[in-house]
Amino acid sequence: MTTSPKKIRAAILGASGYTGAELIRLLVRHPHVEIVLMTADRKAGQSIETVYPHLAGLGLPDLMAVGDVEWPGLELDVVFCALPHATSQEIIKGILHETGHGFVDEMIIERPADYANAIKGSVKVVDLSADFRLRDTDVYTKWYGEYHQAPELQKEAVYGLTEQYREDIKNARLVACPGCFPTAALLTLMPLLAAQKIKKDGIIIDAKTGVSGAGRSLREANLFTEVSEGMHPYGVASHRHSPEIEQELSKSFGEDLYVTFTPHLVPMNRGELETIYVNLAEDQTADDLRNHLQDCYQDEPFVHVVEEGVMPATRHIRGSNLCLIGVFADRVPGRAILVTVLDNLVKGSSGQAIQNMNLMFDLPETLSLEQAPLFP
Ligand SMILES: NC(=O)C1=CN([C@@H]2O[C@H](COP(=O)(O)OP(=O)(O)OC[C@H]3O[C@@H](n4cnc5c(N)ncnc54)[C@H](OP(=O)(O)O)[C@@H]3O)[C@@H](O)[C@H]2O)C=CC1
Ligand SMILES: CC(=O)N[C@@H](CCC(=O)OP(=O)(O)O)C(=O)O
């Protein structure tokens, strides 16, 4: 007689948000995961089908306020944190505190007993927010405008760009999933810079994103009337993803570098497209870049380099964990243009988070992420 293995007990903090809903959509098909806790803020107390009728009939727990959670007895194995940045760090600090590896600071953890015995020593945290992505505390303060509440964990966290940091992610207890724009930019540029196929100077990342990237909170700037039938840049020369992209690219290249990064909001629900302009290194051609990227990603389940002449588009990745990369020669000598697409709510956040969780639990990386994109 075979016994079925015990399921991974998962919590989704911020389950009523866009990335939270996407975690639910994907995880309910995961053969080894059971969602035992879901939290919300304004929506606390409601059932998930009230908030999201598309998630009806799945037998999920109701949404709770974080402060009302009876942590003891939950015996969580993994916590997905899909909360706004700055909110995540305090809660994660509290959760990891009681594992015996945490860093005690009674001034900051006001009610550590709330978490006492709730969490097993082996609990793992997958954070979707920006709180643990930047290594340097001062850089975090500069770009996010506040002091970090858990600087030790900031140093400990593993940057969750799966294809680059797979081995570190497997052994991590806290993974900081990259932002959606950095995911596309880094998957495209890190292998090229590491192999010195492109120059470090003059990299331009022109990004377009769907409106769900801004989250579900009501913001004037995201009203239908503000967004439909037009497009506009935002965060020009000041977007928080610039230092995140530079941190990782500098590591790949081995020297500090800067990028010009400009995101644009376009009237679609989800999806992201980056057109990236680079200067080729000596003796390199666009074909060399394509061949190199194809070699790097040939065994990857989710990152694909399209054949010459094929144009990646957001409709090719919608609802999937795919990232597609196209490489084109510029007519300006010595330059190339790369086009990268992914779904901000899947590979750009929740899908990548689950990919990382699979690694952290020694499971096949593709579990619950295999579905093809929704097309047309
Ligand atoms: N959207 C995207 O494409 C991406 C988002 N991310 C990051 O993921 C995280 C979640 O984003 P997203 O899902 O878009 O955001 P949403 O605004 O859609 O959802 C935020 C969630 O957090 C809850 N929440 C808000 N404030 C608090 C609080 N003070 N305490 C406890 N819970 C709170 C909300 O509850 P309620 O609804 O009840 O108010 C909701 O469940 C963010 O850090 C974001 O930057 C990363 C990559 C891509
Ligand atoms: C349309 C829109 O606003 N998109 C968000 C990107 C979402 C994301 O990845 O943000 P975090 O770094 O906070 O996780 C933005 O540009 O800030």
Automatic annotation (TrEMBL):
GO molecular function terms attached to this record: N-acetyl-gamma-glutamyl-phosphate reductase activity; NAD binding; NADP+ binding
Main localization (coarse): cytoplasm
Broad EC category: oxidoreductase
Coiled coil feature spans: none
Highest taxon, organism lineage: Bacteria
Protein family: Belongs to the NAGSA dehydrogenase family. Type 1 subfamily.
Protein name, per record: N-acetyl-gamma-glutamyl-phosphate reductase
Organism: Paremcibacter congregatus
Upper lineage: Bacteria, Pseudomonadati, Pseudomonadota, Alphaproteobacteria, Emcibacterales
